[in-house]
Amino acid sequence: MSSVSRATQLASLGRPESGWANTPIIKGSTYLFDSLAQWRAARAQRDTDRVLSYGARGNETVYALEDAITAIEGGYRSKLFPTGLAAIATTLLAYLKAGDHLLISTGIYEPMRILCETQLTRFGITYSEFSPTDPHWECQLQPATRMVYVESPGSLLYDMLDLPALSQICKQRDILLCADNTWGSGINYQPLNLGCDISIVAATKYFGGHSDVMMGSVTTGQDCFAQLEQASINLGQTVPAEDAFLVLRGLRTLELRLQRHASSALRIAQWLDTHHAVKTVFHPALPGDPNHALWQRDATGSNGLVTIEFDPDLSSKKIEDAIDGLHLFGIGSSWGGYESLALPADPQRTRLRNSEQLGYLLRLHIGLEDPADLMRDLDTMFNSIT
Ligand SMILES: *Cc1c(COP(=O)(O)O)cnc(C)c1O
């Protein structure tokens, strides 16, 4: 499979060998066996293999999506979860135990840090943070560190980590390296190929791609899959077949959509970079972004996320009134769908680098609309501020 091009791969993943072009939606809890012997054999086999036995453990539709994501991420196997956050939470509970320490990068998806703070600490799992820009980050490792968890690029300032370098140190010390790959969505960036043990994607974003489904995936190498699967079963994690079908449908156009998101976002980022109301534009594909070199080395594409820091002389009130006047950008959570979105980012809450020095931050998701129309809308916003 890896020898064919990405576009060809996306057109063939998770399809039945014959008959229907798409794997149909299977609904079911009870799976029937012809005899007790067959039932016993399936139960014995399911500890090591994927066999149909009970609805909570998946069915043909779910397996088709698992296989497709495994191929995209370049892993051994994948598990699916009802949200991206459920995927993160189950991963942490799968590998960590009381007494362990977890090291996380700053600027990660905020609910993940809240999960560490409000759940993990109650189970005796400690955590601390390191900055993606800290060259001496390994000084933050402790004897009890069991996992390093990063988001690369982060989803607000797009700070990238040198995953191959991190992985070398983690491997020496027998520490698991886990990456949130939602930004890269498997095709722009491949943490497992860059040395990570575990890659998590909020499939709610670009995998689904249409703002109509919630899901998360975790893909691992062979060594650590069994623990993830056990935790997933223990915690009763499962996804509806309709949702798996929708995400698999989204994957068919993933590369095409990302190319459009990325080219529009770069064009808009370059225009924003010259605008007098904008102090900084954060977008790793933009030459001049501090993450551009690592992005060029490790990523194969970009996406629709662009964050801007307004000129610090502008008042927040004026900025927010102007944001309310946008017509083509929706105000709402999430990103990765077909449509453009705008939402302020609080640098204190998300603990971004140099958060004290950052001005008003607005994260834009550049959707599939015509970029010229989007620029006109943004220009109207700027004109109403200044
Ligand atoms: C959205 C997001 C998540 C969580 O996904 P949900 O499906 O909303 O739970 C996790 N990580 C990142 C980077 C995200 O952007």
TrEMBL record:
Example of a GO MF term: cysteine-S-conjugate beta-lyase activity
Reaction equation(s) it catalyzes: L,L-cystathionine + H2O = L-homocysteine + pyruvate + NH4(+); an S-substituted L-cysteine + H2O = a thiol + pyruvate + NH4(+)
Ubl conjugation in keyword set: no
UniProt xrefs under SUPFAM superfamilies: PLP-dependent transferases
Pathway: Amino-acid biosynthesis; L-methionine biosynthesis via de novo pathway; L-homocysteine from L-cystathionine: step 1/1
Keywords for this protein: Lyase, Pyridoxal phosphate
Chain positions found as N6-(pyridoxal phosphate)lysine: 205
Name of the top EC class for this enzyme: lyase
EC numbers, comma separated: 4.4.1.8
Cofactors demanded by this protein: pyridoxal 5'-phosphate
Signal peptide: none
GO biological process, one term: transsulfuration
The family this protein is said to belong to: Belongs to the trans-sulfuration enzymes family.
NCBIfam families: cysta_beta_ly_B
This protein's name: Cystathionine beta-lyase
Organism: Advenella mimigardefordensis (strain DSM 17166 / LMG 22922 / DPN7)
Gene responsible for this protein: metC2
